[in-house]
């Protein structure tokens, strides 16, 4: 017999028989998706504990790292949210246009901290940027809400929105990025990584230096072999069970329910589509099949097409995969109301400033935004602040 789904919004008074259902309440940042079984909800909570675990050198941290825990960066307003850290990424563009992610030199993410043992051995306190790097970019911490649903959107849905040659002549020519093995990418600011599990497993090593069965070793520092004794924990440093639990937590984080829209925000929702923002920030995607029933065939208020778009030279930085320096994946806007900075590198302090920095394919929509009356610009921003 299958178990009935367990609502994420049940409040139980400890020691009492009273159970108060609150299933009608909005989903808040950090809540799981609705419709989980009891076992899935238990694994979500166990995964939260892994996500918040603080690593040390003794149990796997480093020797190079950006943070000692997932929750250190994904912290606001709750675990799984955004953070104020800014990472350093670098790649090299060849004369033939090929993009080198500098993997043999430790790239394309260059860690900003080193354990005391590595500092003592090599005299460095961070991973050095190689001379081969031609471009350096910076990345803020994105929210993780709703990423399991985005993972469940079929490739065919994403590719149906691609128009690399702008055949409809609307000035929007989104295209897919591809992982190094040719699979469709969707995660990361350049849409390089195909699946959420790969993104999460990679983050343990890239961000914390914590190996796991999918990425079981760390072998170099800037292309040089690790000195003996600087990484004392045996590999892999995270068990498969712990990696699966962390993935479950991220996968089941729900998109927060949009806030109740004011009259101005309702007007702003219409303006968002009217001036062309929704051509890339598509309001809704639909998931397909998924191992977890609560993720199957769901409409997601994602505000992204998961495709690459050219945003112009002002925002450009690194290449990655097929993505040129000026191409970025359309950023999902769900959870935007919690953000403290905007754009991939955090350079914009407000949503309005972020819109005004859009170029390339977004130039026409940006210009229509700046041409709006002050009232209408404020209305559109009010709408964004409900997401």
Largest pleated sheet? 4 strands, antiparallel
Q: Would you list the SSEs in sequence order as H and E?
A: EEEEHEHEEEEHEHHHEEHHEEEEHHH
Mean of all residue-level pLDDT scores = 93
Q: Which percent band covers the strand fraction? A: 5-15%
H/I helix tally = 11
Provide the structure class: alpha+beta
Radius of gyration: 22 Å
Low-confidence stretches: 6-22
Task: State the helicity in percent bands.
Answer: 25-40%
Give the termini separation.
38 Å
Shape: globular
Number of strands: 16
Give the structure's gist in a few sentences.
The protein has helices at residues 38-52, 70-73, 116-122, 147-151, 155-160, 196-208, 240-251, 263-274, 351-356, 363-371, 374-384, and strands spanning 5-6, 10-12, 19-21, 36-37, 64-65, 83-93, 99-100, 109-110, 113-114, 135-141, 220-221, 224-225, 285-286, 299-300, 308-310, 327-329. It is an alpha+beta fold and 387 residues long. Helix 1 crosses helix 7 and helix 6 crosses helix 7 (240-251).
Characterise this structure.
Mean pLDDT is 93; it is low at 6-22. 26% of the residues lie in helices and 13% in strands. It has helices at 38-52, 70-73, 116-122, 147-151, 155-160, 196-208, 240-251, 263-274, 351-356, 363-371, 374-384, and strands spanning 5-6, 10-12, 19-21, 36-37, 64-65, 83-93, 99-100, 109-110, 113-114, 135-141, 220-221, 224-225, 285-286, 299-300, 308-310, 327-329. It is globular. The protein is α+β, with helices and mostly antiparallel strands. Helix 1 (38-52) crosses helix 7 (240-251) and helix 6 packs across helix 7. Strands 6, 7, 8 and 10 form a 4-stranded antiparallel sheet that branches. A two-stranded antiparallel sheet has the order 1-4. It has a two-stranded antiparallel sheet with strand order 2-3.
């Amino acid at each position: 017999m299958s178990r009935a789904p367990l609502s994420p919004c049940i409040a139980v008074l400890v020691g009492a028989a009273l159970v108060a259902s609150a299933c009608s309440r909005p989903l808040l940042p950090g809540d799981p998706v609705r419709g989980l079984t009891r076992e899935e909800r238990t694994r979500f909570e166990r995964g939260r504990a892994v996500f918040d675990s603080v690593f040390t050198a003794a149990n796997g941290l480093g020797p190079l790292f950006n943070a000692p825990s997932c929750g250190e960066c994904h912290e606001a307003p709750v675990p799984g949210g955004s953070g104020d850290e800014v990472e350093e990424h670098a790649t090299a563009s060849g004369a033939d246009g090929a993009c080198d992610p500098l993997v043999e030199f430790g790239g394309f993410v260059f860690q900003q901290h080193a354990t005391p043992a590595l500092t003592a051995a090599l005299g460095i306190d961070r991973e050095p940027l190689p001379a081969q790097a031609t471009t350096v970019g910076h990345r803020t911490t994105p929210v993780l809400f709703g990423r399991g649903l985005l993972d469940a959107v079929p490739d065919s849905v994403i590719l149906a929105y691609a128009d690399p040659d702008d055949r409809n002549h609307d000035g929007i020519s989104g295209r897919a990025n591809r992982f190094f093995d040719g699979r469709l990418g969707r995660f990361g600011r350049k849409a390089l990584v195909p699946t959420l599990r790969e993104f999460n497993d990679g983050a343990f090593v890239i961000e914390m230096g914590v190996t796991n069965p999918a990425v079981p070793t760390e072998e170099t520092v800037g292309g040089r072999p690790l000195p003996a004794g600087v990484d004392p924990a045996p590999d892999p440093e995270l068990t498969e069970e712990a990696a699966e639990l962390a993935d479950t937590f991220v996968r089941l984080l729900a998109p927060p329910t949009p806030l109740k829209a004011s009259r101005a925000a309702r007007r702003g929702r219409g303006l968002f589509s009217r001036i062309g923002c929704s051509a890339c920030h598509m309001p809704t995607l639909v998931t397909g099949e998924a191992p977890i029933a609560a993720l199957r065939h769901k409409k997601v208020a994602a505000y992204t097409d998961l495709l690459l778009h050219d945003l112009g030279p002002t925002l450009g930085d690194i290449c990655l995969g097929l993505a040129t320096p000026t191409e970025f994946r359309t950023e999902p806007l769900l959870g935007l109301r919690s953000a403290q900075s905007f754009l991939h590198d955090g350079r914009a302090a407000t949503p309005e400033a972020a819109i005004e920095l859009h170029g390339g394919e977004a130039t026409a929509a940006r210009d229509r935004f700046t041409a709006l009356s002050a009232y209408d610009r404020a209305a559109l921003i009010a709408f964004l602040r409900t997401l």
